[in-house]
Amino acid sequence: MPNERLRDALLQRGLAVEEVARATRVDPKTVERWITQGRTPYARHRHAIAGMVQESENYLWPNAVTPGRKAEISGSELIDFYPHRHSVPNDIWTRLIEHSKKHIEILLYSGMFLTDDPSLVKRLKGKADSGVKIRILLGDPTSREVARRSEEEGIGKTTLAAKVRNALAFYRPLSEVSGVQIKCHSTTLYNSIYRFDDEMLVNTHVYGFMAGHAPLIHLRRLAGGDLFETYSESFESVWQTAKNPKW
C-alpha cells in the first residue's frame, strides 16, 4: 500500500525523490519503494526524512514504532499538568506565541480569556507577517453543540453563543491577513487545543465546569510519540468539517 502521508509531505515541501535519496544516502529506487509500496525505512532514514519534511515519524510511519515503545515516548511528551487552565502562568502563553516560527493552531468555542489581551491580534498579525501559519477554529454560534455546552456549563443556553460572537468580532481584523485562516466548527468539543509549533496546551472539558476550571496538559512533540500526534490529528479532523464564518 502506498504511503500517501509521505508522498504528500514531500510534495508539500517540493522535495524530489532524488533529493531524499541524496540526504539518506540510498538509491532513488529505494525511496520510490518507501513511497509507492509503503516500505518502512530504517530508523536513521525515518529520522532524516521527518526532519526534511517537518513532520513526526509517527505521523509518516504509524506502525514503525512498537506499541510499548510508543507508550514510553508518549509519556515523555508530557511536560506539565495543571489542575485548572486558569492556573497556567501567563508567561507560558506569551512564550509559546512569541517563539512560534511555523504554526499556531487554536481549537475552542470562544476562548474569551485570550481576548482579554488587547495586544493579541497585533501579535498574531506580526507572527503571520513573519511567516507563521495561523489557523483558528471557533465554535459556530448558531450550532446546537454550542448551545448544549452553554447549558452544561450552567450559564444559560445563549450565553456561550454570545461569547463566540464576541470572539469572532475580536479576531475579524485578522480575516484579511495573509497566513491567517479562521473557521467555525459545530463539533462536540472534548478538548480545546492550542498548538505552537512542537508544543501544545490541551484544555480538557469536564461536564458541569467552565473550561477555565478544567485541567490542562502541556505537551512537547517527540519523534515516535503518539500523544501529541493524537491531538494534532483531532484538530485536522475538525478543520476539515469547519466552515468560513459569517462575518
Automatic annotation (TrEMBL):
Transmembrane domains' residue ranges: none
Domain DUF5919: 122-243
SUPFAM superfamilies reported in the protein's UniProt record: lambda repressor-like DNA-binding domains, Phospholipase D/nuclease
UniProt-recorded Gene Ontology molecular function terms: DNA binding
Protein name: DUF5919 domain-containing protein
